[in-house]
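Sequence dictates fold. Below is an illustrative record:

_____
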Amino acid sequence: MTLALDSAAQDLLFREARTANTFTDEPVTEEQVQAIYDLVKFGPTAFNQSPLRVVLVRSDEARERLVSHMAEGNQAKTASAPLVAILAADNEFHEELPTLFPHFPQAKDMFFAERPVREQAAGLNAALQAAYFIVGVRAAGLAAGPMTGFDFAGVQKEFLDDDHTSLMVINIGKPGEDASFPRSPRLAYDEVITTV
């Protein structure tokens, strides 16, 4: 084996992990979410900017509001998932840089003074963190159902402010009956990796 992570962990995080479309009614606890965050917060981002923000949708009223903005094919699973998270990029992440990047606090104004630059950086780095979050959900023994099939402007208006950009919605829980579609093919190593 050439990987330091044992085979069971590789299966849990990647090979056997699947996007879930149905879930059991077992709740996802605040302690589980805290453990997920406490693990994935260590994933790298540029300048340690950490722009990901997560809105947990737990109340019935908030769930109804969110479901109304989901694409038709995503409504039922979002309505029934034990927990739903809205992942967003904080376009004002630079305000935290003096704390998060203390050895170069000038980065806040030197690189991120302009909003378009911040939006691009926030989108890229929050997307990285969203991937870490999905792997963290799997590490907790749960399944994630990430979706981009929703009205972004509607979710933005309903749950976020103008300083945050919605990235995806993730249903979270223990997989239910017939939770996943058959696994789709993956590209081969030599179709992706080039040596120059």
User: Anything to note?
Assistant: Residues 161 and 192 are 38 Å apart (CA to CA). DSSP finds nine helices and four strands in the chain.
